[in-house]
Amino acid sequence: MNSENSVKTRKLVLLAVLTAVIVVLQVITQFIKPGFFPITLSLTPIIVGAALCGAGAGAFLGFVFSVMVLLDPATGAFLAVSITGTVVTVLAKGTLAGLVSGLVYRLLEKKNEYVAAISAGIVSPLVNTGVFFIGCLLFFADYCVTVGESLGFTGNAFYMIATVFIGANFFIELAVNVVLSGVIVVLVKNGRRILKLEK
Hints:
The protein has helices spanning 3-28, 43-53, 55-70, 76-81, 83-108, 113-139, 141-150, 157-179, 181-195. The chain has one domain: Arp2/3 complex 21 kDa subunit ARPC3. Helix 1 packs parallel to helix 3 (55-70). The protein is elongated. The protein contains nine helices and no strands. It is mainly α. The two termini are 22 Å apart.
């Protein structure tokens, strides 16, 4: 087996491991719900995969995360309103979060790995939450207002989505990613050594 094939094999193994980590994290977070949905802890392994294997790998890992979100019981309420809207929103938010965070990391890593990790850690939940917000406005505005009112909130769809459906989750996810940015750098450095990748 030549060196190039060996690196490809190691990358495939790494993606398989990160895929398993994402699945486990999504199962664990079913029990951590500060708001309407569980918090997302899977963005960190997505960023690590994107940093080591490229933005395409980040998109793949984001897609895996999205599939797990589709299987989440909390997603069932959205599926009951619009199957198409739910599938499009959920698949787009995770996949784009992985893709964009990978692109941001690649763009900044040569200047400073910590800046790259922090930036990718900020961009990932921004994209994930931003696409979810847009999807809610496009497909579920009336549903979000109805749910918000049933919980005692008053306001338009924009307000209901931001407070009831997103709420504290976004800030927790953002804080986790920023705090773990140093860990991401260490994991990427060690991953490069194990994969024998040139920086």
